[in-house]
Amino acid sequence: MVHGFCIYKSSLQLTPEEVDKLQEMINQKSIGIANPMKIINAYSDWATGKAVKDKVTIIYDTMHYSTQKMAHEVAEGIMAEGYDVEMYFLHEDERSEIVKSILTSKAVAFGIPTINDLPFPSMGDIIYYLKGLHFNRTGFVRPAVTFGSMGGRGGAPEFIANELNDCGFNVIDQQEIYYVPDSENDLNSYKLGQKLVEEAKKLNL
């Protein structure tokens, strides 16, 4: 599980002497870590962007399966461009696993239904968790998209887009539909996934 890594890029780029000192300190504390260098190297890779793969993390919630359907179309568009997808459903998946996936992804997509003119409440949990982790300190800015279904005035994708920008991501597009997606909506979601990968491929990693 990933907790409290709050990345400061420069502080994780250690000199060989600092690494030796840190390893010695861990050994002296006898805290039961069998391979401390594995942990140190993981944090360093997260901080410098070395851990990322050609992959997109999709995080979504859904009320009546419309946003879920959109998420699957976005995923299809991503895979058509040659990237892998890891998908997380907020009703079932743990936030630490989501963060671990984001750390090894080049881009993210968030699917959010609107309820009472605001984002579905579960989205607030992961958003404020991400805010505290400062993803803008991981050596590069991940592109992101937001999407979702609404039954009234809507606004959740835009709301979350602003929050994601504050978290250290770069939201490049948003998509919102009424009720159940039709074939045209499906195609637009597919293209949204393709657009996200096109932006991720511009990263100098």
Summarize the entry for a quick read.
The protein has helices at residues 16-29, 36-48, 66-80, 95-103, 121-131, 156-167, 183-200, and strands at 55-60, 84-89, 107-111, 114-115, 118-119, 143-150, 170-178. With 205 residues, the chain is an alpha/beta fold.
**Overall pLDDT metric:** 86
By secondary-structure content and strand pairing, the structural class works out as: alpha/beta
Shape: elongated
Report the radius of gyration as a whole number of Å: 18 Å
Strand proportion: 15-25%
Strand ordering within the main sheet: 2-1-3-6-7
What letter string, H or E per element, gives the SSE order?
HHEHEHEEEHEHEH
Number of strands: 7
Uncertain segments: 1-12
**What is the overall number of helices?**
7
Cα end-to-end separation: 25 Å
Question: Sheet with the most strands?
Answer: 5 strands, parallel
The helix content is 40-55%
Would you kindly provide a written description of the structure presented here, covering whatever features stand out?
It is elongated and about 60 Å long. It is built from seven helices and seven strands. The N terminus is likely disordered. Strand 4 and strand 5 form a beta hairpin. With 205 residues, it is an alpha/beta fold. Helix 3 packs across helix 7 and helix 5 runs parallel beside helix 6. The strands form two sheets. The chain has a five-stranded parallel beta sheet with strand order 2-1-3-6-7, sandwiched between helices. The chain has a two-stranded antiparallel ribbon with strand order 4-5.
